[in-house]
Specification:
Layout (H helix, E strand, L loop, with lengths): L1 H12 L4 H14 L5 H11 L3 H8 L7 H4 L2 H21 L3
Helix pairs in contact: 1-2, 1-3
């Protein structure tokens, strides 16, 4: 399982889109070590999504598609992204 966690963490931080690298990579650093097998599978499903779609869900806050709607980790990531977005916006003064 440690190897799987390392692979997921790498994929989380190397998306190729800075916003996603920050959101997903930071979340992975803080949370992957706590996840059980079922939660890791849920997370792997999120990480497998395309970058433009994840930006829509995490940054633009569009509704999750049916394939992620029942995924608790996906919902947690949306909340995390929105909270990070608020903090980063306040810190940079971009409102």
């Amino acid at each position: 399982m440690d190897r799987w966690r390392r692979q997921l963490k790498y994929r989380s931080k190397q998306r190729g889109w800075l916003e996603l690298d920050l959101i997903i990579g930071t979340w992975a650093d803080e949370n992957l070590h706590k996840l059980n097998v079922d939660q890791l599978e849920q997370y792997a499903h999120v990480v497998a999504c395309e970058n433009p779609d994840l930006i829509k869900y995490f940054v633009e806050k569009l509704p999750l598609p049916d394939s992620l709607a029942s995924n608790p980790i996906a919902h947690e990531l949306v909340e995390y992204a929105q909270e990070k977005k608020k903090r980063w916006t306040l810190q940079t003064g971009n409102q």
